[in-house]
Specification:
Layout: E1 2-3, E2 6-7, H1 14-17, H2 26-35, H3 49-59, H4 65-82, H5 85-91, H6 106-109, H7 120-126
Antiparallel strand pairs: 1-2
Helix pairs in contact: 4-5
């Protein structure tokens, strides 16, 4: 089954398979299935044509995949342009939501760089002294 450019795996349950779509998590998937009156335990390959159409119709009311990505990028760009604190943090590739950076944030800040003592000979060659 293919929804908004994403192939959903046939062997997975419908509630798990829907989470392959960007913008649909487990909670949203269960809400979508409740609205479309489909049992969450059914496998994707076992869905009938009529159930697939109901599912597609309910998903049309949600912002998914490309549209959602564009909106999120637009929000980040707007924060940068107005000079908001969150926008500055985004542009510097630092944590945006108040996390500490002294001891953590390795995924955002990158690999540790050890700065140690430099011998006098090396310092003179580098032109530091």
């Amino acid at each position: 089954m293919r929804i908004s450019g994403v192939n959903l795996p046939d062997e997975k349950r419908v509630d798990i398979g829907l989470s392959y779509l960007y913008g649909v998590g487990r909670k949203n998937a269960l809400d979508i299935l409740k609205k479309s009156e489909i049992d969450p335990a059914v496998r994707i390959k076992a869905l009938s044509e009529e159930e697939q159409k109901r599912l597609q119709k309910v998903l049309e009311s949600y912002k998914l995949e490309g549209d959602l990505r564009v909106e999120i990028q637009g929000n980040i760009k707007r924060l940068k342009e107005i000079g908001a604190y969150r926008g500055v943090r985004h542009s510097k590739s630092l944590p945006v939501r108040g996390q500490r950076t002294k001891s953590n944030a390795r995924t955002k800040r990158g690999k540790r760089v050890t700065i140690g003592a430099i011998k006098k000979e090396v310092a003179t060659k580098m032109g530091i002294t």
